[in-house]
Write a structure and sequence with these properties.
GO molecular function: sterol binding
Shape: elongated
Region (Disordered): 133-153, 280-306, 637-700
Largest sheet: 14 strands, antiparallel
Biased composition (Basic and acidic residues): 646-687
Organism: Sander lucioperca
Low-confidence stretches: 1-31, 136-151, 278-329, 694-698
Helix content: 25-40%
Subcellular location: Membrane
Length: 741
């Protein structure tokens, strides 16, 4: 067999030796966290931008800077279902099937290869862990020992395993040192071989190269065997540890659910006790009385904000309320429904309906119930009270500025129910009403009435035994623009507090529904709100940032500043209208750099932020129930004794909730035609009753429970509740109600 030439043999062996012995930074093992800078494609305007990437536990996340790691993650992709592809020397792509795709670029080919290796290892582990978590045939006991002896045995087992794994890691380190040593020696021999001519010394040099190559091969095999042993040992014990960890997680979840149920039960019992019992003086508890004085050990060290102390029994407010129950009469709180029938999956071509409606007002477009949700606009208006506790807390505040923070939070909370609610509520018929009586379990009750049809306007009045009154009149102006739908609420909202006589007013922002024709519907809120305390001059300016693809801010961001009558800032609010809000007390303010619009920014130095509001989680299966909240699920629940004009009695809305949409569409057309007939008859009667000089108003309807008044405090004109509804309900007398259904 002919020998290869010395130069050819030398070049081949040298190439292999260089590849095997080149020193590199260690590639992370599957359990490690790998971090570094990569360039990520953003858009055609900004191109590739430098981002900080973190690979951990099978997840690849990125941030704008390292400082963002503690609070703001810009995106995360799960490698278990991801595909990793190399484009060229520095570029590679990670995609999970279309929902997320990262186009990335490393600073060099070596850096790209390190990331590819780390990603492949992490992906392999994530896939393996996912498969093992689905495997039910493991002999590991389902529940670990709970006794002290069992826990001690498990600790000894873990320590023994860790020692074994540690020894395997030392073996790997030793093999690594030997590979570097023998690889360097082999490389030197190959370099010497290049300078030798064919002659007497050729055989000796070839023998040295062969010997060192053999040592390198033996060391490499030892490294491979050590890696195999380490991997096998780690896999065997990792599966058992994963099962044990899952058991601990399940136990923690069960414990949290139990605590949550106990908290809810305690809350219901407390509300039932307060709403149904008045204790006479002989029932006073000396223990509770002494505690009311305050114990120094129970006080919060941070007394930055001060709330008036709540009376445990609220005897005065209940005793002074003529509608409160008699002493010691207990009635159970009504159990309300937690589910409605699932939304049917009916297909309808929206473009065939909307193509001729561009530029028209939404209320004048004949829409089938396929695009509705089984609630009326009056019920949607009543949903503003979902977070009534914020007004309860505001009523107890001694500081008007702190009270302003709670009122502002209540204002923002009313939008949290809209984030997934893309269905259109039913337009109320003229004279339609909706009552929400939660006096017994929540301490408030409210009434809505449709007081005008063109333009459509609804009046709302809510009163609480905790000392606040909410009233609003909303007229919706809406335009369909082809790609999106703009809904502009006109009118005013007012909140009055009995104890302080503080009188607040504000307006709503614009709601925009995007992707009306093509794509997935999504909702955004944008604009500015000024909440004004007309008594003190305090003001809260809220800004709802519109969503922008190019913005660096978090989506649905809301910021606000609470100022006194002199314009001095006292609190700042920040958060999102779909999740939570926080507020902070301002200690100092100063002028900063100019902003994007040329205005000088104000920099506020604040104390640590406190959470003031958080959105309640949606009920289980909400995605199949129009994304209704727990309150929304109860609004159309039939109740006895409500007015015949109540939205719960509306037949087309009830048919839609039951899933009978064809019948609901037919009933909806019947009701709308009936309303048009009644309107024409009312106009004819108005013409007969008026003189030619006076003329006639197109809609001379007089509301049943509201009257239009000028508010001397805010200077606004709105429909105000004139009374009589709840008395009529108590007597069962609804003679004044028209036949609208």
């Amino acid at each position: 067999r002919p020998l290869a030439s010395p130069r050819t043999l030398t070049a081949s062996l040298k190439q292999q030796a260089v590849v095997m012995s080149e020193p590199k930074p260690p590639t992370p093992t599957p359990g490690d966290t790998y971090k570094g800078w990569l360039f990520k494609w953003t858009n055609y305007i900004k191109g590739y931008q430098r981002r900080w990437f973190v690979l951990s536990n099978g997840l690849l996340s990125y941030y704008r800077t390292q400082a963002e790691m503690g609070h703001t993650c810009r995106g995360t992709i799960n490698l278990a279902t991801a595909n990793i592809a190399v484009e060229d020397s520095c570029n590679f792509v990670i995609s999970n099937g279309g929902a997320q795709t990262y186009h990335l670029k490393a600073s060099s080919e070596v850096e790209r290869q390190r990331w590819i290796t780390a990603l492949e290892l992490a992906k392999a582990k994530a896939v393996r862990m996912q498969a093992e978590s689905d495997d039910s045939g493991d002999d590991c006991p389902a529940v670990p020992p709970t006794s002290g002896q069992g826990g001690g045995c498990r600790n000894l087992e873990i320590q023994s395993t860790l020692r074994t794994l540690g020894s395997k890691v030392e073996d790997l380190n030793t093999c690594n040192d030997l590979i570097v040593k023998h690889g360097s020696a082999l490389q030197r021999s190959l370099s010497e071989l290049e300078g030798i001519r064919v002659g007497a010394d050729m055989g000796e040099k070839m023998r040295q190269v062969t010997e060192r190559a053999t040592l390198f091969r033996i060391t490499s095999n030892a490294m491979i065997n050590a890696c195999r042993d380490f991997l096998s040992l780690a896999q065997n014990h990792g599966k058992r540890w994963q099962k044990a960890l899952q058991v601990e997680r399940d136990q923690r979840i069960r414990l949290e659910e139990t605590l949550e149920q106990l908290a809810k039960q305690h809350n219901h019992l407390e509300r039932a006790f307060r709403g149904a019992t008045v204790l006479p003086s002989s029932f006073s508890n000396p223990t509770l009385g002494s505690k009311g004085k305050g114990d120094a050990s129970d006080e919060d060290d941070d007394n930055e904000f001060f709330d008036a102390m709540e009376d445990p029994f609220d005897e005065l407010s209940l005793a002074s309320n003529p509608e409160s129950p008699q002493p010691l009469e207990l009635e159970p709180v009504r159990q309300r429904r937690t589910r409605i029938p699932d939304k049917p999956n009916y297909y309808l071509n929206l473009w065939s309906i909307m193509k001729n409606c561009i530029g028209k007002e939404l209320s004048k477009i004949p829409m089938p119930v396929n695009f509705n949700e089984p609630l009326s606009m009056l019920q949607r208006l009543s949903e503003d009270l979902e977070y009534y506790e914020l007004l309860d807390k505001a009523a107890k505040c001694q500081s008007s500025l702190e009270q302003m923070c709670y009122v502002a939070a209540f204002t923002i909370s009313s939008y949290s129910t809209t984030v997934h609610r893309t269905g259109k509520p039913f337009n109320p018929l003229l004279g339609e009403t909706f009552e929400l009586d939660r006096l017994r379990d929540c301490g408030y009750r409210s009434l809505c009435e449709q007081v005008s049809h063109h333009p459509p306007a609804a009046a709302h009045h809510a009163v609480s035994e905790k000392g606040w009154t909410l009233r609003q009149e909303i007229t919706l102006a809406s335009k369909f623009r082809g790609k999106y739908l703009s809904i502009m609420p006109l009118g005013s909202i007012q909140c009055l507090f009995d104890k302080s006589n503080n009188h607040y007013s504000w307006k709503k922002v614009t709601t925009t529904v995007h992707n009306i024709i093509v794509g997935k519907l999504w909702i955004d809120q944008s604009g500015e709100i000024d909440v004004v305390n007309h008594k003190t001059g305090d003001r809260c300016h809220l800004k709802f940032a519109p969503y922008s693809y190019f913005s660096r801010d978090v989506p649905r961001k809301v910021t606000g500043v609470v100022t006194d009558k002199d314009g001095k800032a006292h609190y700042v609010l920040s958060g999102t209208w779909d999740e939570k809000m926080e507020f902070s007390r301002v200690m100092q303010s100063s002028k900063g750099e100019n902003g994007t619009e040329g205005k000088q920014r104000t920099v506020y130095q604040t104390l640590k932020a406190k959470e003031i509001w958080r959105k309640n989680p949606l009920p289980e299966g909400a995605e199949n129930m129009y994304f209704f909240s727990s309150l929304a699920l109860t609004l159309n629940d039939p109740e006895e004794g409500v007015a015949p004009t109540d939205s719960r009695r509306r037949p087309d809305q009830r048919l839609m909730e039951d899933g009978r949409w064809d019948e609901a569409n037919a009933e909806k057309q019947r009701l709308e035609e009936k309303q048009r007939t009644v309107r024409r008859e009312r106009e004819r009667e108005a013409v007969k009753a008026s003189s030619p000089e006076e003329g006639t108003h197109p809609d001379n309807y007089q509301a049943m429970w509201f009257e239009k008044l000028d508010d001397p405090v805010s200077g606004e004109t709105l429909h105000v509740y004139k009374g009589g509804y709840w008395e009529a309900k108590d007597q069962g007398s609804w003679d004044v109600c028209p036949d609208i259904f």
